[in-house]
Amino acid sequence: MALPEGIGIVVGSANARVGLEAGVETLKAGGSAIDAAIEAVKCVEDNVEDRGVGTGGIPNVIGQVELDATIMDGRTLAAGSVGAVKEYPHPIEIARKVMELTPHVMLVGEGAELFAKHHGFETANLLTEDAEASWRERIQGGASNGSSVYEDSYQLYMQVVDDWTKKLHEEIFGTTNVIVRDAQGDIACAVSTSGWGFKWPGRLGDSPIIGAGNYADNRFGSAACTGRGEMAIRCTTAASVVMYMRHGKSLAEALEAAMVDLRHLDDPFAGERSNVMNIVAMDREGNVNAASTSEESTFVFQRTDMSSYEEQARLTVPL
Ligand code: GLY
């Protein structure tokens, strides 16, 4: 059922609930889908309780919080992305500037940080005490030698990487997805993450990669992923959902088909976790739905005519 005339909608992964009101208020104030998606995601990036996005995100294996983010404009298929950015608390805003001001789509690492500096973005310490404690416990075995995480010696570094992939398997995939359709029917999709907890420095997941973790096209709809990004990269999962809708599948059928594609992956690192992939999606009329490999996963949405958000179960599609 299409959205009523003049009504916008914001939908996201469950952790986006902290940003839905900001997104809806932005739409009500006349902001675009892009404005609303950015405002919603910034709230998640600022939520220090969220261990998978922005400030408070779990660091990489050498104790640095490295952030990835993307924004895509469904009107024009314009997109901006940053990856492995340190010390900038709102990578989603930097991604927007990449989209709006440069001929590029993706900037990573030092180049992205240089770009952010030139555009006046403020730096901050993103490593909260809780996140640093998790790092010390998991990677240093609880030892605290009083040194800064960043000043650790080569010897400690070698200790840290020893057995690294085993530690990695057990840890966290946290990301936020926000898709917005404004009253004009324009769709935008924003994604932000600190990536896989204790990842290798410089590792990029699906979130900064257009088509893998984020896709939006006004003509067909939008999708965004959370979970183990390597899987979504290999199956171009977000773009697949939109492509399946383009070829006539309903929103629910498109979600299911994109999840079923993941079953073809031969993946020795998949581990035992049931919650390895989640997709939030919207069709071109503003209908929303989501899928997950886990039975427990939910998603949230709020229309501009609702006073608070609603939370719903996702379709479960096990691997
Ligand atoms: N889906 C987020 C990541 O893999 O980094």
Described by the principal axes of the CA atoms, the overall outline is globular
Oligomeric state of this protein: single chain
What is the CATH superfamily classification?
Answer: (Glycosyl)asparaginase
Helix content: 25-40%
Kindly state the number of beta strands. Answer: 13
Helix and strand pattern: EHHEEHEHHHHEEEEHHHEEEEE
Q: Evaluate the radius of gyration.
A: 19 Å
Strand residue percentage: 15-25%
Distance between the termini: 30 Å
Here the CATH topology equals: Glutamine Phosphoribosylpyrophosphate, subunit 1, domain 1
> Going across the major beta sheet, what is the strand order?
4-3-2-6-5-1-11-12
Overall pLDDT confidence? 91
Number of domains: 1
CATH second-level architecture: 4-Layer Sandwich
Helix/strand-derived category reads alpha+beta
Low-confidence stretches: none
CATH secondary-structure class: Alpha Beta
